[in-house]
Specification:
CATH superfamily of the largest domain: PurM-like C-terminal domain
Number of helices: 9
Helix content: 25-40%
Strand content: 15-25%
Shape: globular
CATH architecture of the largest domain: Alpha-Beta Complex
Strand order of the largest sheet: 8-10-7-11-9-12-13
Largest sheet: 7 strands, mixed
Structural class: alpha+beta
CATH topology of the largest domain: Phosphoribosyl-aminoimidazole Synthetase, Chain A, domain 2
Order of helices and strands: HEEEHEHEEEHHHEHEHEHEEE
CATH class of the largest domain: Alpha Beta
Distance between the termini: 42 Å
Number of strands: 13
């Protein structure tokens, strides 16, 4: 006999992107594995990776798909999964990729994906150790699903769920870095008549400069005493801050005017009509730092030429989540879907 699934209200759906957080929390509670001494960090909304005990070793495991980008998709896949491992305090070591290609894809498509995977792995000293490649019915563009394994090297794991009341949220690099690169790479031809060619060229290069990799940011913040780390992905900076607050069970007060939005980012987001604070933002790291350690962390990041700023303060357990923009304060609510999804409708 099988039991019926727990009843629930229909989740609010609004297009491609992450599954609604409230329903995801319900699904995890209902169906995730039972507590085990072999699982040090398990699944939860806003938590980047699992930490499992294998023999005498703590292994960090993360998995993420690349569903928006088509150009440089292999590089994206390795990098975003490395980010998820790094924010747990681990060093990325081994990568597996499942590449799903449209049925009409030619060999040059697979070649480009594998080359991107190899280049990114080499750049981060990661080994590509396996995966799967196929043509898949129903796809109009490639999708790469990656899994990264990381080594804690004897350290205790970090988690996005460990921010403490009174901590400040330090954000590196700024808003919508990945979105800026995506707009330029996916819609550059359409924008060429209205956006300067040099701006588009700089925006395309946001993939590498300032870059969507936060492995270095995370290592510096970890060593500077961060209580918690989280990388910004779908839903942008506002979602990343909200996810850390929610995972930690805390309120948060966000000052949007302190969040860096580069000129290229603002120009391209305005051109396609999206909010940069709600657009996919790999490349930005949120670090929860004790108030008396914030200056040292900012100095350590600055010495590595990583731009960073205090953008929020975590409040009391169960407190409200709020955001102030241009002097007006409102509830901090993550978008139903990432702003970048407007490009794919």
């Amino acid at each position: 006999m099988t039991s019926d699934p727990p009843s629930s209200k229909s989740p609010r759906l609004s297009g491609p992107g992450k599954w609604p957080a409230e329903d995801l929390a319900r699904l995890l509670q209902a169906y995730a594995s039972v507590p085990s001494p072999h699982v040090k960090v398990g699944p939860a909304v806003g938590v980047d990776a699992a930490v499992v005990r294998v023999g005498n070793t703590d292994l960090v495991v993360a998995t993420d798909p690349i569903t928006f980008a088509t150009e440089a998709i292999g590089w994206y896949a390795v990098t975003v999964n490395a980010n998820d491992v790094a924010v747990c305090g681990a060093t990325p070591r081994f990568f597996l990729a499942a590449a799903l290609l449209p049925v009409d894809a030619g060999p040059e498509t697979a070649e480009a994906i594998f080359a991107g995977l190899a280049d990114a792995c080499k750049a981060m000293d990661v080994l590509l150790v396996g995966g799967h490649t196929e043509r898949t019915a129903g796809l109009d563009r490639p999708i790469v699903c990656g899994t990264m394994l990381g080594d804690l090297e004897g350290r205790q794991p970090l988690t996005s769920a460990a921010a403490q009341p009174g901590d400040v949220a330090i954000l590196t690099k700024g808003a919508a870095i990945e979105a800026t690169a995506l707009i330029a790479r996916e819609r550059g031809d359409h924008l060429a008549e209205t956006v300067d060619a040099q701006v588009l060229a700089r925006a395309r290069n946001f993939l590498f400069d300032p870059g969507i990799n936060v492995v270095k940011d995370a290592r510096i913040a970890r060593d500077a005493g961060a209580h918690a780390l989280h990388d910004v992905t779908e839903g942008g900076v506002v979602t990343g801050l909200w996810e850390m607050a929610r995972a930690s069970g805390l309120g948060i007060e966000v000052d949007a005017d302190r969040i860096t939005v580069r000129d290229e980012t603002r120009l391209l987001c305005d051109a396609v009509g999206i909010d940069p604070l709600e657009a996919i933002g790999s490349g930005a790291l949120v670090a929860a730092a004790p108030p008396d350690g914030a200056e040292a962390m900012l100095a350590a990041l600055a010495s590595a030429e990583i731009e960073a700023a205090v953008v929020a303060t975590f409040g009391a357990q169960g407190g409200p989540c709020r955001i102030k923009r241009s002097g007006r304060t409102a509830p901090l609510v993550p978008p139903d879907a990432d702003a970048i999804t407007a490009l794919y409708k």
